[in-house]
């Protein structure tokens, strides 16, 4: 492709031949990955495999030295900054929950809505019917409807993670990037998180989940990509990837 052309694809996310180096160290090496619209993909791989850097490339935090990164068929993400990318419908959930602890659950979701903060701060602001509906729907999906008036700080670790996922959903993204959502969760919470992500994915959201917990990844029941040294080592069903000798050698067998 020439420098001026942007590829058009049917994919929601298309990475091809992506390279990133930090002071001469190749963190991402000829990385190619395609996610279809409505797909959920699990990304696994050992520490330092490049999983976080890949997410940073998609959100514009890190710019690739080389390669194509195309969102929603036509949008060249390499040309856009982080702020602009966030407005395109790409939501990212970092590993640690960052909810507003002294606000209620409902207010956390309201804060996440794309309402002008200056307008919302006035005495006369009333939430619109569509906003109320959206919040009710998100509360239903994250199963915190009964707790809507509780302070977020009183939630369990797992519930905080769900609330933060809900805050992303309130913004109605096309693509959700979720980094190690079940770290520190109980087995029950881990199972409920798998159910939650499957539910979100069933509503046409494309989802990328980075996770080390293989029980959780198995429960998601989606295609798995194993990264190693900044590139794709193996891709396929959890059974195929788990049986791959190289994957066992560099990751699962350790
Ligand atoms: N800003 C940076 N400067 C220098 N090296 C970096 C930088 N960011 C990442 N790296 C290196 O790039 C490699 C990939 O890191 P990355 O954090 O993407 O891996 P990861 O797969 O997310 O690992 P983990 O599972 O531990 O989170 C690592 O060797 C890391 O030390």
**Largest β sheet strand count, sense and barrel closure:** 6 strands, mixed
For the record, the CATH class of the largest domain is Alpha Beta
Oligomer kind: single chain
| Low-confidence spans | none
Q: What is bound: which ligands?
A: adenosine-5'-triphosphate
Side by side, the strands of the main sheet go 6-7-8-3-9-10
Tell me the series of helices and strands, N- to C-terminal: EEEHEEHEHHHHEHEHEEHH
Q: Would you tell me which CATH topology of the largest domain applies?
A: Rossmann fold
Number of helices: 10
Percent strand: 15-25%
Bulk shape: globular
Helix content: 25-40%
Terminal CA distance reads 41 Å
Coarse structural class:
alpha/beta
Q: Would you count the extended β strands for me?
A: 10
Query: For the record, what is the CATH homologous superfamily label of the largest domain?
Result: P-loop containing nucleotide triphosphate hydrolases
Q: Total domains, how many?
A: 2
**C-alpha Rg (nearest Å):** 19 Å
CATH-derived architecture of the largest domain: 3-Layer(aba) Sandwich
- Quote the average pLDDT: 91
Descriptors:
alpha/beta, 10 helices, Rossmann fold, single chain, about 250 residues, 4-stranded antiparallel beta sheet, 10 strands, about 35% helix
């Amino acid at each position: 492709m020439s420098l001026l052309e942007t590829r058009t694809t049917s994919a929601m996310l298309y990475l091809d031949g992506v390279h990133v180096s930090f002071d001469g160290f190749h963190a991402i090496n000829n990385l190619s990955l395609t996610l279809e619209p409505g797909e959920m993909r699990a990304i696994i791989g050992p520490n330092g495999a490049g999983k976080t850097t890949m997410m940073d490339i998609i959100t514009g935090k890190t710019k690739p030295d080389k390669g194509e990164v195309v969102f929603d068929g036509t949008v060249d993400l390499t040309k856009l900054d982080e702020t602009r990318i966030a407005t395109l419908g790409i939501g990212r959930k970092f590993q640690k929950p960052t909810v507003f602890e002294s606000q209620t659950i409902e207010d956390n979701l309201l804060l996440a809505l794309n309402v002008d903060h200056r307008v919302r701060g006035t005495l006369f602001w009333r939430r619109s019917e569509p906003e109320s509906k959206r919040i009710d729907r998100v509360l239903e999906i994250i199963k915190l409807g009964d707790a809507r008036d509780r302070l977020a700080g009183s939630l369990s670790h797992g519930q905080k993670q769900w609330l933060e996922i809900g805050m992303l959903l309130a913004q109605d993204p096309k693509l959700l990037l979720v980094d190690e959502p079940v770290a520190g969760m109980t087995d029950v919470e881990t199972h409920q998180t798998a159910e939650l992500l499957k539910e979100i994915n069933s509503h046409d959201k494309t989802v990328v989940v980075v996770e080390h917990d293989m029980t959780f990844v198995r429960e998601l029941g989606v295609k798995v990509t194993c990264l190693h040294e900044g590139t794709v080592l193996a891709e396929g069903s959890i059974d195929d990837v788990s049986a791959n000798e190289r994957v066992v050698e560099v990751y699962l067998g350790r």
